[in-house]
Amino acid sequence: MSDRYIDFANSFLGQRLVSAVGLASPVRLERWQAGRLRPVEGPLLLGGGPLVGQVNHFASKLTDAVFSYGPEPLVATLWIPGQGPTLKAVVFDASHLLHTDQLKQLREFFQPLLRNLQHSAHLVILGRAPETLSDPFAASAQRALEGFSRSLAKELRNGSTLQLLYVAEGAEDQLEGALRFFLSPKSAFISGQVLRLTPCATHVTDWTRPLAGRKALVTGAARGIGAAIAETLARDGAEVTLLDVPQTKNDLEALAARLGGRSITLDICAQDAAPQLIEQLPDGVDIVVHNAGITRDKTLANMTPEFWDAVLAVNLNAPQVLTKALLDSGTLHDDGRVIVLASISGIAGNRGQTNYAASKAGLIGLAQAWAPLLSERGININAVAPGFIETQMTAHIPFVLREAGRRMSSLGQGGLAQDVAEAVAWLSQPGSGAISGQALRVCGQSLLGA
Ligand code: NAD
């Protein structure tokens, strides 16, 4: 469903009216286009502590315009507030801020550049995870980065985003993959997120086809977010197998054919779903995306046992049973990637969704609990938690709730299926083993549960 308010707010007349009446004015976000090569098209500014030196080693692969700003400049071209070009991307290393009085460097670095950002600029702050620091004051300073970055993300305008990445000792070589994602339009609908990178032995070798040679299974792939995930994984070089219920056979087969992949029609809740799936994946699989999901909304007072059971069966039980079977049978290869589609309802809760939110919170818990157990095999498991995404699922939400869902976020709009698909594709990459047991929200920094 299209968002008519965005079209209106960006029209000649609409722009004037919206600003005169003081309404929210969401901008059209810049998204990744087929054929694009560079993650950043425009000036990238680097500043801060020692980690930014690592970024500088590969910065010229991200863009052809790298600038530095701050007391210890890294690259030849200095950025001068008021004179330098407007910025498309910014990386600030705050890992060296270990005392309260050093935190003012955040204000000193960011303040001059906030009025010099281009449309849909992407900012990243680097730090060290507080729980890994023994000095309580240092840990407190690094935790302060979280409040700073989540707040600054809410102040950014014109489709700009900001994330905080806590980089563990030894995980510095994973920064390139993370920044290729978070500084590019692939992360257009992600903002105010905090992720932890840990050391990981695998790396991407070809950034134009990071998933080449990998076999991927996507459930619920006939339409919506699942179809976009299958398309994006195929774009990135994966051999895709698309799964959905038998009723979707025609759409599923047509999409699989277009992507050069295979299709499996199967109800993931069927008694024999696990053995059937294993049988249909004789060469095994490297990437499993549990995307199939349903809603059956009612307040708990009116919730029928059928509504409760159906949602828990599809959304939570099936991913648990199928993942275990794929692991135990060796169908899921070592160095595999498992991604479960959660929801911000599973983080914030949502009226009328006790069943759905329970299932989605359960998935986040599943990723958290399974991650350390799977790390020996090099397998990572993460949850992607979409906010309001424009699909058939959200088209059925009553108008007022739908409008509220769209506008109650820093970016003031719903996301596209492509936004979720890009996050899943990134977490599927070989280097993304640096992230496991985490939940990445793709929600435009929704106010729900933020
Ligand atoms: P959708 O309803 O458009 O598509 C879901 C797909 O899953 C359908 O093709 C359906 O046939 C399939 N499916 C359902 N039950 C199945 C079963 N038993 N076996 C096999 N396939 C089955 O939904 P969507 O909006 O694309 O959402 C995809 C995922 O993202 C879901 O898990 C959903 O909960 C989650 N999500 C969506 C949003 C949103 O705003 N759209 C927000 C948060 C989370």
TrEMBL record:
PROSITE patterns named in the record: ADH_SHORT
Location of the Ketoreductase domain: 214-387
InterPro entries per the UniProt record, alphabetical: KR_dom, NAD(P)-bd_dom_sf, Sc_DH/Rdtase_CS, SDR_fam
SMART domains, per database record: PKS_KR
One Pfam entry name: adh_short_C2
Signal peptide range in chain numbering: none
Family, similarity comment: Belongs to the short-chain dehydrogenases/reductases (SDR) family.
Entry protein name: 3-oxoacyl-ACP reductase
Organism: Pseudomonas weihenstephanensis
